[in-house]
Design a protein that fits this description.
Blueprint lengths: L2 E7 L6 H14 L4 E7 L6 H11 L3 E6 L5 H11 L4 E4 L11 H9 L5 E5 L7 H19 L11 E4 H4 L12 H7 L5 E5 L15 H19 L3 H32 L11 H29 L8 E5 L2
Helix pairs in contact: 5-8, 9-10
């Protein structure tokens, strides 16, 4: 199979028939063998019924339905697990991503040998203040922190080699950082393509300002995981040891000063009256806690089980 198209969705029943027919037209014009996997992430409208009807009309349409809303990352994870195409395309269901971009994305993966190609919505139709400006700030921070030089981490339209999506773990809210996860997994040939951004035709955006706050927090998380995810002791243990030694040596110095003054009959204060003693003691306690955090992190890392992160209610054609 040439292409698997993974489409997470939440309450997008109006756009699904048009999107499916658009994809089918593009696939037929380019003689691609394909599958479209819709992941219904807990929709409360008739999205699932629409997917069932579309699957009866087109056997290439497949579906996964979650019991409730688990998030886009979990939906992509479920779709990646089922995808069989040589090239995997992810896109949103709101018609803001154009299926006409798929052939060129496919060629960049197959002919130009990219591991991953990310879309760049250079010209956007979103609100400049509430979405475009925060997005620019977010992308700049992501580039600086991750070392992956993409202009639009948030773009849902991306193409992957099959081997990439089968060797990365998308969890939490890390779908924005799949290129970073891919790079950390050893897939460094990452490209970018300017894609058309279309105005939303149906419904309302599911994302608000909060996603940018969460995005920055996730950015910190992925930076930590990429640096110390396999060895938390290297960070917490080192910091804890340094802080403990600073506190310990400070306490020793305070005690030495008192003993020196006692020995030479010089005036002195009680150690407990010296504020620096409590600072040193606090530093030792914090250092010990950081060391224990790193130690516990190592134990958890070695004993954790891969828990099921979502529950699938129904499947179609899978």
């Amino acid at each position: 199979m040439n292409i698997s198209i993974i489409i997470p969705l939440l309450n997008e029943q109006e756009s699904l028939p048009e999107l499916t027919s658009w994809i089918a037209r593009v696939m037929q014009e380019n003689n691609f063998s394909y599958e479209v996997i819709f992941i219904d992430d807990g929709s409360t409208d008739n999205s699932w019924e629409t997917i069932e009807n579309l699957s009866q009309q087109n056997s290439s349409v497949k579906g996964i339905r979650f019991f409730k809303n688990y998030g886009k990352s979990q939906a992509l994870h479920a779709g990646f697990a089922k995808a069989e195409g040589d090239v995997i395309i992810t896109m949103d269901a709101d018609l803001q991503d154009s299926p006409d971009e798929i052939p060129e994305l496919y060629n960049m993966i197959i002919n130009d040998n990219y591991d991953l190609v990310s879309g760049w919505k250079k010209k956007r139709y979103d609100n400049a203040f509430t979405k475009n400006l925060p997005s620019k700030l977010f992308n700049a921070a992501a580039r600086k922190t991750s070392g992956v030089h993409l202009n639009d981490f948030n773009c849902g339209l991306k193409a992957y080699k099959k081997i990439v999506i089968k060797n990365i773990e998308v969890s939490g809210e890390m779908h924005r950082y799949i290129p970073v996860l891919a790079k950390n997994a050893g897939f460094s040939n990452i490209g970018e393509k300017v894609v058309i951004h279309q105005a939303r035709k149906y419904g309302e955006s599911k994302f608000g300002m909060s996603r940018f706050v969460n995005g920055f927090l996730d950015l910190i998380t992925i930076w930590f995981l990429s640096k110390f995810g396999k060895r938390p002791m290297h960070l917490f243990g080192a910091l804890g040891t340094i802080m403990f030694l600073i506190g310990f040596l400070s306490a020793v110095y305070i005690g030495f000063v008192k003993l020196y003054r006692l020995y030479h009959d010089l005036p002195y204060n009680l150690v407990t009256n010296n504020p620096w003693f409590f600072i040193a003691l606090t530093t030792m306690i914090i250092g010990t806690q950081l060391f224990l955090a790193g130690f516990l992190g190592e134990i958890i890392l070695r004993t954790k089980n891969n828990e099921e992160r979502y529950k699938v209610s129904k499947e179609i054609n899978l």
